[in-house]
Amino acid sequence: MSSKKIILNSSKNFEIIDISSKINEKIDINEGIVNIFSKHSTSAIAVNENESGLLEDLELMLKDLVSDKYSWQHDLIDNNAKSHLKSFLLSSSETIPISNGKLDLGTWQSVFFIELDGPRKDRIVNLTFIND
Predict the structure, then answer these.
(1) Which range of residues forms the domain containing residue 38?
(2) Contact predicate 13/113, CB 8 Å
(3) Is the pTM of this model over 0.85?
């Protein structure tokens, strides 16, 4: 088992960043799995298609599900309740097979870091590799 990390900077409040190539650059095993984990409770990790319309639809759906029409209790602390609530709907991690030293994703799949409370600097994504 080995661990590495990716450091990301986001430039918008909501941003979907394809990190597939960054993960592939860090892979140091030929076969096994990688767990990809965001160390932030206002972000997420997801696997899906990197198609601009779909990514815009995700943002629209999350805005609709976690809207401004409520007075969120967490906003009394630091005014980012919507970011935390959206994170609850997504996931902080994904585990993906590695084959021939690369992520073994489907044809249209990518791995995304989803920023929910940006812009932010030095977002940490931990990668844990487990060899076959």
Answers:
(1) 2-131
(2) no
(3) yes
